[in-house]
């Protein structure tokens, strides 16, 4: 028996038992919005705008269609719950002191239940405020 054979044997049993690895799936969105930071001393306390990039990551196992979640369905949820509200908005009307941190937390609140209803977990929200500045939010500690 070669050295590799016992390992291959164990791997085959593992797959034979139907063990499927959890996967992360990402979808990227963009929205344009205006804001001003109300607890800031400096240029960002003035009204200004960004083209925000939003990266939504969900965690789950591929289903009987071999999908963690249908990208089309995820797009619909994020579009309805987040993009339709924030795009071309003055974010201060919706979120208090809209730092990227507060925007990420708000988006988590809008999405986590809706995504869980689809049998997967919201893993991470990343909000890019500029090309080189982002925050990542992964929910409250359980
Ligand atoms: N931790 C955070 N810091 C800052 C936030 C934030 O949301 N969280 N937001 C801002 C401003 O709103 C804005 O993003 C300005 O950031 P800045 O990095 O200065 O933007 P630019 O990259 O465009 O810088 P320029 O030098 O003006 O080109 C600030 N901080
Ligand atoms: Zn800003």
Quickly count the helices. Answer: 3
Helix content percent band = 25-40%
The sequence of SSEs as H and E is: HEEHEHEE
| Uncertain runs | none
Total beta strands:
5
At CATH's second level, what is the architecture? 2-Layer Sandwich
Bound molecules: the ligand Nc1nc2c(c(=O)[nH]1)N=C([C@H](O)[C@H](O)COP(=O)(O)OP(=O)(O)OP(=O)(O)O)CN2, zinc ion
Query: For this structure, what is the CATH homologous superfamily?
Result: 6-pyruvoyl tetrahydropterin synthase/QueD
Rg, please?
Answer: 20 Å
Mean pLDDT: 92
Overview of this protein structure:
This protein has helices at residues 5-16, 71-86, 100-116, and strands at residues 23-35, 48-60, 89-90, 121-130, 133-137. It is an alpha+beta fold and 142 residues long. The chain has a single domain (21-137), classed as 2-Layer Sandwich (Tetrahydropterin Synthase, Chain A), CATH 3.30.479.10. A five-stranded mixed sheet has the order 3-1-2-4-5. Strand 4 (121-130) and strand 5 form a beta hairpin. The model has no long low-confidence stretch (mean pLDDT 92). The chain binds the ligand Nc1nc2c(c(=O)[nH]1)N=C([C@H](O)[C@H](O)COP(=O)(O)OP(=O)(O)OP(=O)(O)O)CN2 and zinc ion.
